[in-house]
Amino acid sequence: MNIDLTLPEDAPFSPEQREWLNTFLTKKLADAQPAQGREITILWGSQTGNAENLAKKTGKALAKVGFSPVVVDMAAYDKERLATEEHLLIITSTYGDGDPPDNAMDLHAWLMSDAAPKLEGVKYSVLSLGDTDYPDFCICGIEFDDRLKALGAEKIYDRVDCDVDYDDCYAKWRSGVLDSLGTEAIANTSVDESEPQGYGKKNPFPSEILKNYNLNSDGSAKQTNHIELSLSGSELEYEAGDALGVMSHNPPEIVDEILAGLPFNTKDEVPLPGGGEAPLREALIAHYDIRKLTKALLTAWQSRSGSPMLRAIIEAGDKKHIDDFIWGRELIDLVHDHPADFEDGEEFVSILKKLQPRLYSIASSPKAHEGEVHLTVAIVRYHSHYRNRGGVCSTFLAERADDLKPGVFVHINKAFRLPENTDSDVIMVGPGTGIAPFRAFLEERQATEAKGRNWLFFGDQHVSSDFLYENELKEMQGNGTLSRLDTAFSRDQKEKIYVQTRMKENAAELWAWLQGGASFYVCGDASRMAKDVNNALLEIAQEQGGMTSEEAEEYIKELRKEKRYSRDVY
């Protein structure tokens, strides 16, 4: 683009100033008016599919206004391209203890290392997904943003950090990016965001509970319920590896206790998070989170409370002190121990977050249970600060849902799928409720008559009371669906044994399966088990493959890139 500035001869500009103005305006106009087909790269890091979906949605929006978006899985991205990118958008989640998603680990580690290049000339923006219930909220996106800036990249638009209810934050970020990249016409271009008709996250299906029973035997310290729900008439479809979102309810007795401690007329209606109104009691049971305390909620409560203790905690600003206070407490504790003054119900609910659905790994194959979906749910119960407490959704499903029809929707997880080639072998590591998706995998493999072998590592506390789905698994062993079953019941002997112990005991055969093309899957606790299993896999690669630690790390990265190492962890 060449611009000829036509200025009066007596205009107060020197030739140098005219040249500078021409360069400046040329650059601004080029930035403001993207050429048809100009490429823009969108990198996504996703553990459960949310970031991937938003990346694809962003790509569609940019395509409608003249760009040629390239939407790329971070695991498949050629890092050598980074320094040559003109425009770069990063959409990533954070999971576990502030970790990058599995598919973002390699790019994240490389970018944070000394090997990362200078990025002058790269223009970027970051959308970060997270959950304010966790201490390292959106840390992966924050680290990407800070590092790109430190390497000299220039922001297109400031990073936006999204909580679990991310629709509004995403819309703000996307609008800001479009506005920064385009002309007024582009900024005002509407993008079709119509949701597909039918049941989904915004319109959950009221599902009848068909079966609901405890899988643990007498004497167990745990309760794990097998729950079967009907999808009849919903037109909802799922695949083995997907998750089910469940809309839960808070305990009515706790809600009534909260209402009794509030200083205003609690009979009034209040606004709901998604629009509309309802009586305060109904709103607190079905729509607002009354369990999780956050720093933001604590700060808002303290401003309306005369509690010297809360004031000291908030004003000190010590993160550990705040986290220690929050742990094991809920809204009911603030109501009783630190009364606050609210004008009415509307002001009260304004400080609360929306009650979010809980995602559970689906424990069934649709080919084996037409019109149904099964879950394996650990019922969480504990005692803290002189109260018996429990998990919001798990206790709802176990104790309060049988006479209701819980709202459900399917959460697609394309990152956790069986191999397309049914001749491929599969290794599954799923202790406790981590067995859920592998019950689905085994049912799927049996229904499709897959020729590939299936090896399951399962662990729990006691074989006599905690062997989940024992009869089903032994039947699958008998009919050849389950080729190998290795169990680790940690408390049946003096020394604790875990699934990673069994992996290392069978290192030679496990390595042979991997060398033969087997896919490796892990489901369960992210903070300890998944890391221990990963470390065991690295040890096996070094021991059986004769690799150095660096070579073993590269081998694991390659497994991820090939989609042969997948994790469904939480």
Describe this structure in words.
The chain is α/β, with parallel strands linked by helices. Strands 1, 2, 3, 4, 5 and 6 form a six-stranded parallel sheet that branches. A five-stranded parallel sheet has the order 20-19-18-21-22, with helices on both faces. Helix 15 (about 435-445) links the parallel strand 18 and strand 19. It has four domains: about 35-185, Rossmann fold (3-Layer(aba) Sandwich); about 205-250 and about 355-410, Translation factors (Elongation Factor Tu (Ef-tu), domain 3, Beta Barrel); about 250-350, NADPH-cytochrome p450 Reductase, Chain A, domain 3 (Up-down Bundle), CATH 1.20.990.10; about 425-570, Rossmann fold, CATH 3.40.50. Helix 7 runs parallel beside helix 12 and helix 20 (about 530-545) packs across helix 21 (about 550-560). It is globular and about 90 Å long. It is about 35% helix and about 20% strand.
Rounded to the nearest angstrom, the distance between the terminal CA atoms is 51 Å
Structural class: alpha/beta
* CATH C-level name of the largest domain: Alpha Beta
Principal-axes shape call: globular
Give the strand tally: 22
CATH architectural grouping of the largest domain:
3-Layer(aba) Sandwich
The number of helical runs is: 21
Q: Output the CATH topology of the largest domain.
A: Rossmann fold
Biggest beta-sheet profile: 6 strands, parallel
Percentage of residues in helical conformation: 25-40%
Low-confidence stretches: 1-5, 183-193
Please tell me how large the radius of gyration is: 27 Å
Mean pLDDT: 91
CATH homologous superfamily descriptor of the largest domain:
Flavodoxin domain
Strand content: 15-25%
Supply the number of structural domains: 4
